[in-house]
Design goal:
The protein is α/β, with parallel strands linked by helices and 353 residues long. The protein is 37% helix and 17% strand. The protein has 14 helices and 12 strands. The longest helix is centred in the first third of the chain and has 18 residues. The chain is elongated and about 75 Å long.
């Protein structure tokens, strides 16, 4: 079935990418593979092949190409899937370099690469829609369990002072008790990123203007430094961040419940002048495992694998932390994940005949 997902009016941040205000919303189509196909325990029993009808190989007759995008989380997913498909299904897998626009275009025109494990389709909505319209690609499943990738966070030692899970709505009442004599620092994102505007408006929407001091770092590196220094000092502070990201796993942080997403309110929050700011969660984004149509048609078992291969963001944060911790490569981190986290990926493989 098909879904149409509106592109957020501003782009969520990916590590290493600068945010900018977007223009009118684009629309990206979203099609999920038939959930019934290749479902463990519910598959129909095929007729016995005759001499003229031989079951095709599980992985097809050609090498299976997987796009490795240049950012770390996408590189890790490509390497993880390559290892599991090789070990569990006997596939011949080739990991190939790719980037968002070129990969979406190539999948839609040539059917290669066969898989893109982390496609942010709203970022390339026109290319994605063209590929969908050509019936060359589908979305197998979301890349990650969660659909909202941005939010406000606090260190766990601050969250421990709350009797319930911290929420943005509760800050106006809680902050004067936690820090009565001075404003609490709120580390936002750089001033030329769209999230800085949203954060300023959200602070006003939650009635926090007199309670927090908004700090807008010059760049991503200063942002990370300010957060790390505040943790080292055991400072009571709040900050904005995004996922997947190693920082959130390397340091012990707790996300704030931002409430429900309200599209109308969020559109106002993204404007430099939002006269009547109303709280809203950050906009969700559409990040999918993109597969070519031929996998769905000719390799239903492999299509079923990708239908189940959705990873929790916290797990990816931990993998990114491992990648940042030392001299580990994406290949080495992928090897450890496959060796140590079968409790996660075994369900992706499903029942084997």
């Amino acid at each position: 079935m098909k879904y149409r997902a509106r592109r957020p009016f501003w782009l969520p941040v990916l590590a290493g990418l600068t945010l900018g205000l977007s223009a009118l919303p684009s629309v990206a189509q979203f099609e999920v593979l038939d959930a019934a196909q290749d479902r463990p325990g519910q598959a129909t029993t095929p007729a016995e092949p005759t001499t003229a009808e031989v079951a095709p190989p599980v992985c097809g007759t050609q090498p299976l190409s997987i796009a490795r995008m240049p950012w770390p989380s996408a590189a890790l997913l490509a390497e993880i899937h390559a290892r599991i498909l090789t070990a569990e299904f006997g596939c011949e897998v080739r990991v190939v370099a790719g980037d968002m626009a070129a990969t979406a275009s190539s999948m839609g025109s040539t059917g290669q690469p066969a898989v893109a494990p982390e496609m942010w389709v709203n970022r390339v909505a026109d290319l994605w829609n063209a590929a969908m319209d050509s019936q060359m690609v589908r979305s197998a499943a979301p890349s990650f369990v969660e659909a909202t990738f941005e939010g406000w966070f606090m260190p766990s030692y601050l969250a421990d002072t709350f009797t319930t899970a911290p929420t943005a709505a509760a800050l106006a009442e809680a902050l004067p008790l936690l820090q009565p004599d001075e404003k609490m620092r709120f580390i936002s994102c750089p001033g030329d990123w769209a999230c800085s505007i949203i954060n300023r408006n959200l602070v006003a929407a939650h009635g926090l203007e007199a309670l927090v001091e908004i700090v807008e770092p010059a760049n991503r590196f200063e942002m990370d430094r300010l957060i790390a220094e505040a943790v080292n000092r055991r400072e009571l502070f709040l900050f904005y961040y995004w996922q997947p990201n190693a920082v959130l796993a390397q340091l012990d942080f707790v996300p704030l419940d931002m409430g429900a997403y309200d599209e109308s309110a969020a559109q106002c929050l993204a404007r430099r002048v939002c006269e009547d700011a109303v709280p809203s969660a950050f906009a969700p984004d559409l990040v999918v495992i993109a597969v070519t149509e031929r996998i769905f048609v000719n390799m239903p078992t492999i299509a079923g694998y990708f239908q189940r291969a959705t990873l929790p963001l916290a797990e990816m944060d931990e993998l990114l932390a491992q990648l940042n911790a030392g001299a580990s490569t994406p290949e080495e981190v992928a090897d450890r994940f496959v060796a140590e986290r079968e409790d996660i990926w075994r369900s992706w493989v499903g029942a084997q005949p």
